[in-house]
Each structure stands twice: as C-alpha cells, then as structure tokens.
Design a protein that fits this description.
There is one protein chain. The chain has 590 residues and is α+β, with helices and mostly antiparallel strands. It has 5 helices and 28 strands. The protein has helices at residues 103-143, 159-202, 305-313, 316-324, 353-368, and strands spanning 3-7, 26-29, 33-39, 43-54, 57-66, 76-81, 85-87, 91-96, 210-220, 224-235, 237-248, 253-264, 270-278, 386-388, 393-395, 402-409, 411-419, 427-435, 444-450, 453-460, 469-476, 480-494, 500-513, 519-526, 536-539, 549-550, 558-565, 570-582. Helix 1 (103-143) runs antiparallel to helix 2 and helix 3 (305-313) packs antiparallel against helix 4. The chain is extended, with a radius of gyration of 40 Å.
C-alpha cells in the first residue's frame, strides 16, 4: 500500500494526535532540486522535490540553503512512500554565513576567480617573453664583442651571414613584442569581465550571505524510500504577458503567439522547471476592509504664532525656521504691510511669502516620501487563470527577462485598409478578428509582423475575450494610394431680417488599390458636432458620397464609408458639410 503524506507550515499544532519525536533524533540532510514554480505578479510558489532513503523510527529531514527571500509562513511539506510516515510541525531557522550561499552568486565568484587566474597566466607568459627578449639582446651585444671561447664574434661573420643573423634576431624580438601586445589585449578583456562581475556582485545585498534551514521531524514504521516535496513562496519575482502577431496578407491568416516575460531575484536559479504563470494577484488581499466612521466639524484656520510673528516682523530667519520645522501649520492669508516681506530668492521674481511657504512645504513632504517596491503589472480585468509554459523552463536569479512560450491563439480574421484623411494620407492595414478557444488575451506588449517583416510594437490595452470582435493595426499599406483635396472652403452671410454666418467645406478623397487582389477599405471622417442649439450643422447630401454610417462606434460626428476595390480600381469619396451660427456670435472649435 502506498501512503500520501501532506503537512503544514512552521509553528502550527496538529489537530490530531501526533507521536512524540525524540529530542535527539538523527538528522538526514536532503539534497533537493526545484521541480516547479507558479509565478504571480509579485511572488512565486516554488516546489522542491527529493527522493530520500529513510530508516524506521523518528528522525529529522533537513533542507538547508533555502533563499532568504522566502516567506516562512508559506512553507508546506508533502510526500509519498510505501511505509506509514507521519510528519511533525516543521520549523525554519535563519542561518548566517561568511561566504555567499546563493548558487548564482557562487557561480559569479567562481567566474571571478577563474578570470583572475587567467590574468596571472597571461602575466607569466609576458614575463617569459620579456626574459626571452632580454636574453636575445644580451646575446647580440656579446656577439659583437671580440671572440671568446664560448661565443664567436658577430664581426667574424660574412656580410650575408651577419644580415641573416640580424634579421633573425630582429624578427624574434618583434614576434615576442607582438605576443606581449596580444596578451595585453587578453588581460584587458579579462579585466572587463572582472569589472562586470564585481558590478553584478554589488547588486546582491548582505542577505545573500544568509539562508534558511528547514527542519521536518517525521516518524516511519519501517525503512522506505520517501518522495518529499517542500513548497514555499518567494518575493522579488514577477511576469508580464507578451505577444507576437504575424499577419499573412495573401493567405489572410493571423498567427497570434503568447509569451510570458518572467524575471526573478529570489536568490536561487530555476533550471529546467515546470513553470506556470498565474494572473492571480495574492497581494491584493481577499476581502474588503471594514468601514470607519468619518467625522466632520467646523474650524477656523489660523497660522501658528511663530509664522505670524515672522511675517509681521519681517524676520527672514524665523520665517524659514517656522517653515522647515513644520511649525507654520497651514497659514491663512495675512494682511501684509505695503512693503511686502522679501525673502532670499524671492525679490527677483516677486514670489509671495504664502506661495513660498507652500512650495517649501511640498519640497519637505517630497523629501520624506518613502520608496515603494515595484511589482509587475498584470491587468487581468478580473480574469484569473493559469498558463503552463511549454517544456522545461530556465530562469536565472539575476533579474534578466526570460521570454517563454505559452501557446498560440486561433482566430477568424478579416482584412481592411483604414483611411483617416483628416489626419494622414497614409492607409493602414487592419486585421479584424475573433478569438477561438476559452482563453482571453491579456493586456501586454505586442510585436507586429506583416508578411514576415517586423512592423513595430504596440500594446494590447484591454483584455480581448473569446468571441469578441477586435482589431489590430499592422502599419502603413503602401499599396493603397490616398490623395485628399479641398474643393470648397467658403464663409458667407445669409438672411434678410436675421443674419447668420455660414461656413461651407467640401472635400474629395481619391483612393486607388494597387494590390493584386480585392481589398476592403474604410474611410473615416469627423464632421463637426454642435454643442449649442444656435449652431446648426448639416451634411450636404448632394456633395457627399452616399452609403455612409453616422456616429460610427457611438462617436459623435464619426462618419464611415466601406468599399471593396478591385486591383487598380480608383474610388472617390466626397464629403460636404456646412455650419451656420448667429452673425454677432463667435464660433469656436474649428
């Protein structure tokens, strides 16, 4: 029979009978690896797994070297075995060390030691080359001296031999000098690596020399193999969604790929782990706070005596002191004498003492402002879900962003070229689509590709749910040409008894499709909207292309035409409108 054991966090008492554990139970050191992690916007739940051979009786499992950034109250333990194993209440203890205990920091220290050793080797080679050159120079000097029993004189050599010896000597010295310069370059590169490592090490605080040790007492009825899982939450972790949208215009397909950009400085590297990205936000709490009574009363604002006296006596030192110490309270305007108090720095710009007080108070508050922790902003709009990352994932504990594939979205897509001639003569390719499946698209960074070319980046600004129609712009479409002309821009007055001012404007937008296939275009214009019953605005039907939609997407004045153009086809979209208002009134907004 196989048993499953699951238990609890530090310091809790069991609600059922637990066998007493001997005070001097044997400790079993556990070598565990991180198996999985569930990442939220500001923390993660990490699960470590280990397979341990345990003897019968009462003993302790010891997990050491756990990161300082874990939450002790989040510790949980569970396990499976063929024996009956009972866990006791686990405990955690903070341990100090003279050396770094985090694996990523130890790795940097190892790289630092390696670079320093490489530099020593290069310098030893340089010394050997210098000694070789010194010997060559000494030999050349001795060779030019009178002949000795140990060395023939260079002067005894024939001219061609003398030249060959000189050239060979020079070439060897030159080669040694070049080798030294090459070693200088290598030493410089290693020094750059050392500086980079030292900069990275400075980012790790003293707590990276601390770690948690977790002790789990247990009792087993026989020798067995225990598969144990220890889970806990850690801070300094987060993720944000990212997307690639790839549009194929010819095939009219949209490939939507979702990624999770994960970062962490928890103090332990995650290597080949099962990673789940969650939109839940535990830091937001689970319930609303209690309502408190709000009492109102009347008061008469008064300045503090120190501030009043400083203003009346025009004592600049006391005035500054009253402000900096906060004794000035919130002053009411005082009747200042005709020769208004002038403060240092205020004479040139005429700054009022009350304004100066307010400015200095704001500066004092800003100086006292506390910095707040930065967490990832995952706007799930109330949706809570989990995304399992495809395949094993690796996220180092150095804060670097790891872009991990989550999955792909299917979509029914349609293409439309949108034109807003009042803003630009450029036409933009827009994909309209509806998501398939059950998962929504959350707000996040979006990279756009059209026909394999990178177009740019945008944002998914609001959640896109399955079945909802959405649209996405894929940049300027140069295969649609737009030309806009003003046909009429005329102001006049009409009427006999009561005279109105009238402004009439007529436009024409000439559009041509240079695509090799039919393309749908949408032309959007804004017609002015009246905000006063005395201002009348009319669309001139005889000067406007029919078939338009008014107040498109409930935007007042938004007017839209939709046409399908064949290859090389031209289309003219006309718009004419007039506005009239009383002659003696001024019109604003145009």
């Amino acid at each position: 029979m196989r048993y499953s054991i699951r238990f609890l966090l530090s310091g809790l008492v069991l609600s059922f009978t637990v066998p007493s554990f001997p005070a001097f139970a044997d400790d079993i050191r556990v070598e565990s690896t991180i198996k999985s992690a569930t990442v939220y916007n500001d923390r993660a739940t990490v699960t470590r797994m280990a397979k341990v051979e345990i003897p019968a009786g009462s003993h302790n499992l010891i997990f050491s070297g756990l990161p300082i950034k874990l939450y002790p109250n989040s510790l949980r333990v569970s396990g499976t075995s063929d024996a009956r194993v009972v866990f006791g209440a686990l405990t955690s203890k903070l341990e100090n060390s003279e050396e770094f205990v985090v694996a990523s920091v130890l790795s940097m220290k190892d790289r630092l030691d390696l670079s320093q050793g490489i530099i020593k080797g290069y310098k030893a080679e340089q010394e050997a080359l210098s000694e070789a050159n010194n010997m060559l120079k000494t030999w050349s000097m001795q060779a030019g001296s009178p002949q000795t029993n140990s060395a023939p004189s260079l002067m005894d050599l024939k001219p061609d031999q003398w030249i060959a010896a000189s050239d060979g000597l020079s070439a060897k010295i030159l080669a040694n000098l070049k080798a030294k310069l090459a070693l200088d370059q290598k030493i410089s590169e290693e020094n750059d690596r050392i500086r980079k490592i030292n900069q990275d090490l400075k980012q790790f605080q003293a707590d990276y020399k601390q770690s948690y040790t977790v002790t789990i007492p247990f009792e087993s009825d026989k020798n067995t193999t225990l598969n144990v899982a220890l889970s806990y939450q850690v801070s300094h972790v987060g993720w944000v969604p990212m997307y690639d949208a790839r549009l194929d215009v010819q095939a009219k397909t949209l490939e939507f790929v979702q990624y999770g950009s994960v970062w962490q400085r928890s103090g332990e590297d995650w290597k080949d782990v099962e990673l789940v990205l969650s939109t839940a936000q535990p830091s937001r709490g689970t319930a609303l706070p209690e309502l408190q009574s709000r009492w109102l009363s009347l008061y008469k604002p008064q300045a503090s005596p120190a501030y009043v006296q400083a203003v009346e006596e025009r004592n600049e030192a006391d005035f500054e002191k009253a402000i900096k110490t906060g004794d000035s309270a919130i002053p009411v305007p005082l009747e200042a004498p005709s020769d208004r108090l002038q403060l240092p720095g205020a004479a040139d710009d005429g700054e009022d003492p009350l304004h100066r007080w307010r400015r200095l108070q704001e500066e004092r508050v800003l100086r006292k402002a506390d910095t707040q922790a930065v967490v990832s902003n995952v706007n799930a709009s109330g949706y809570v879900g989990e995304y399992k990352v495809t395949g094993p994932a690796t996220v180092p504990s150095d804060g670097a962003q790891a872009k991990l594939l989550i999955g792909q979205f299917g979509a029914d897509v349609g293409l439309q070229v949108q034109i807003k001639p009042q803003i630009s003569d450029d036409a933009y390719m827009v994909a309209t689509f509806k998501l398939k499946g059950d998962s929504p698209v959350l707000p996040g960074l979006l990279s756009l590709f059209r026909d394999g070319a990178f177009i740019g980046q945008d944002q998914v600004r609001s959640i896109i749910r399955p079945g909802e129609e959405a649209e996405m712009s894929f940049g300027v479409d140069d295969a649609v040409v737009v030309k806009r002309n003003v046909l009429k821009d005329e102001a006049r007055e009409v009427g006999l008894i009561t005279t109105d001012s009238v402004l009439e404007k007529n436009f024409i937008n000439e559009i041509q499709n240079l695509h090799k296939q039919d393309i749908q275009i949408a032309v959007l214009e804004i017609v002015p909207v009246s905000g006063d019953e005395r201002v009348r605005i009319d669309i001139l039907r005889d000067k406007t292309t029919p078939g338009f939609e008014k107040d498109f997407k409930n935007v007042k004045g938004a007017t839209r035409w939709v046409k399908v153009l064949k290859p090389q086809q031209k289309e003219a979209i006309k718009l004419g409108w007039s506005v009239s208002w009383p002659k003696d009134e001024n019109l604003s907004g145009l």
